[in-house]
Design brief:
about 80 residues, mainly beta, 4-stranded antiparallel sheet, 3-stranded antiparallel sheet, 7 strands
């Protein structure tokens, strides 16, 4: 969350086909609540909300946040 209390956004850009973006719930039990599959070059803008506490990314992608940029990698 940002200082003003508005949910934080992240940008995910797929570097390869088949990148999975999975939203995880908030609360006593963490569960998957949404998933998307991105192909190379596709961009998704995701948001942390009262229901989404974490976002899991599988595959090679660039993730941009207000805290910086990181590149995820494929499993070897």
């Amino acid at each position: 969350m940002t200082q003003k209390g508005t949910p934080e956004y992240i940008v995910i850009k797929a570097i390869e086909d088949g990148v999975n973006v999975i939203g995880l719930t908030r609360g006593a039990d963490t569960r998957f609540h949404h998933s998307e599959k991105l192909d190379k070059g596709e961009v998704m803008i995701a948001q942390f909300t009262e229901h989404t506490s974490a976002i899991k990314i599988r595959g090679k992608a660039v993730v941009q946040t207000v805290h910086g940029e990181i590149e995820s990698d494929t499993k070897k």
